[in-house]
Amino acid sequence: MLKVAFSPSYAHSLPLGHRFPMEKYSLLPEQLLYEGTLAKENFFPPDFLEEKWILNTHDKDYYNRLKNLALTRSEIRATGFPLSPALVQREIQIATGSVQAALYALDHGIGMNIAGGTHHAFTNRGEGFCLLNDIAITANYLLENEKVNRVLVVDLDVHQGNGTAEIFKNRSDVFTFSMHGEKNYPHRKEQSNLDIGLADGIADEEYLEKLELNLPFLLKQFSPDFIIYQCGVDVLSTDQLGRLNLSQNGVRKRDNMVLSLAKNHEIPIFCCMGGGYSKQIKVIIEAHAHVFRLAQELYS
Predict the structure, then answer these.
(1) Is this prediction's pTM over 0.90?
(2) Which of 119, 120, 159, 180 is catalytic?
(3) Based on the structure, what is the number of domains in the chain?
(4) Helix count (H) and strand count (E) of the chain?
(5) Is 120 an active-site residue?
(6) Is the backbone of residue 69 left (phi > 0), alpha (psi -120 to 50) or beta?
(7) Helix (H, G, I), strand (E, B), or coil: what is residue 236?
(8) CATH number for the domain including 83?
């Protein structure tokens, strides 16, 4: 049975101006239940990680100031959210859900998180709606506990996974691959192991050609035994922040390419959702739902 981490949405406790697109985290599971893709038994509520696993990735001073709500105004402004105990607890719970879903993937091929993909969180700071980097925490947990030896991060959000790149810049057991808008946020990019910067307006055919060219090469060159897939849907033409031109069908094909490659090579894969900022929430939900439908199709 497919297992999906689900943390209750934090949107209701945010000021009105900050609630979008947080609403998707409650609407997406509702849609998946409604259409019959998932049942209640597929979801699990994450626990809370022991602090040592967060500190295995994040700077102790930063984490202590975060949990004690002692970040500076500029640090809070960089995250994009007003800082609160509920927000910190949600970030910890999301990271826990990612770790637990990844452990499930080791036994069943795939695990998923309704949230996660917080790739703009650095070792010692947060940015861009990300305070703790669940991708890095998950990879480090698996490696530290000798569950895996080599982790490939496939980050297909429209924004570069700058925090993940910084965290793993001196590691040989994690390969960071980011395919993102070259002129989009963050304007100061970090260096991933492989960065593919995309021109504004790129559409399905060229995007998928680039992905198809690089993914098999990475598997051959790096030989990962685990994949973390950040499948943001802000690559859509309708996205307010994306500046690319992918269709819903293009996102389907993208997800199919990544998941099928993992399945065919028998490499466990963990999927986290990442960004999505189309004006209509139903467009975001439909795009995110693709990867869950595909997971059921390939792994059931």
Answers:
(1) yes
(2) 120
(3) 1
(4) 10, 8
(5) yes
(6) left
(7) strand
(8) 3.40.800.20
